[in-house]
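User: Could you go from structure to sequence for me? I need the amino acid at each position, not a summary. Structure tokens:
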């Protein structure tokens, strides 16, 4: 049989299979999505029981529809209830700090310190940060905040020799990039970055305050300074329901 092709100019039939039969949960999801638009950001959604009675379906059908809207970031949990979420944070894929990216959107950035410790550099990390195996390196781990909402988890690795007084001079709730630039005179030159989707580990989900099944956006970054020397490795985990990433493309 000839496969069905999308015709240029025809509308995208989002979520509707070619045979036209819409799953019951998806129909309920569409109706809840319309309710979300009416309520607006911060509006409280009726309970699962009330929604099931309103749409004359089972609570499990409502639950499946809500799960998808939560994963898409259109809803969020608030205590025992569910409310309409605000727009996703757009973070540029660039050599800008998390702090700068969040401030540009009128949100208040913050970080909560989980730990700052030294340890001997393992061989697999050494080349990426310009260290010798066994050389002391810092590991800085912080929860990322936007208007006091936990939205991610960030781990930074840097040689102790590059920032010897990190534990005494650096304010953990501030920008690490700002500290390097303003206190140590280190500017960033370029970086290699990889973006992928993952599920949070139980520990990560607990720190960020999300269900373990929530898709996360993971960014690995290896940065170099203005002289081209390896500087840091950063592992940043962002909530998939609260973040999107943008970049500007141009021909090579």
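Assistant: Here is the amino acid at each position, in order:
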């Amino acid at each position: 049989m000839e496969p069905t092709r999308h015709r240029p100019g025809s509308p995208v039939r989002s979520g509707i299979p070619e045979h036209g039969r819409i799953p019951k949960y998806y129909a309920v999801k569409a109706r809840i999505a319309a309710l979300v638009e009416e309520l607006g950001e911060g509006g409280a959604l009726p309970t699962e029981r009330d929604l099931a009675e309103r749409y004359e379906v089972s609570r499990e059908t409502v639950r499946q529809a809500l799960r998808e809207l939560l994963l898409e970031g259109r809803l969020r949990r608030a205590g025992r209830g569910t409310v309409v979420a605000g727009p996703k944070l757009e973070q540029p894929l660039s050599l800008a700090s998390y702090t700068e990216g969040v401030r540009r959107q009128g949100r208040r950035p913050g970080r909560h310190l989980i730990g700052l410790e030294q340890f001997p550099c393992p061989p697999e990390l050494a080349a990426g940060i310009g260290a010798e195996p066994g050389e002391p390196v810092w590991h800085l781990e912080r929860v990322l905040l936007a208007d006091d909402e936990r939205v991610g988890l960030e781990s930074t690795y840097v040689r102790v020799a590059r920032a010897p007084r990190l534990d005494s001079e650096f304010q953990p709730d501030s920008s690490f990039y700002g500290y390097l630039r303003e206190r140590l005179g280190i500017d960033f030159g370029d970086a290699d970055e990889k973006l992928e989707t993952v599920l949070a580990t139980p520990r990560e989900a607990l720190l960020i305050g999300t269900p373990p099944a929530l898709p996360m956006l993971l960014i690995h970054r290896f940065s170099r300074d203005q002289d081209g020397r390896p500087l840091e490795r950063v592992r940043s985990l962002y909530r998939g329901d609260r973040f999107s990433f943008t970049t500007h493309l141009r021909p090579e």
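One structural detail worth keeping in mind: The chain is about 30% helix and 35% strand.
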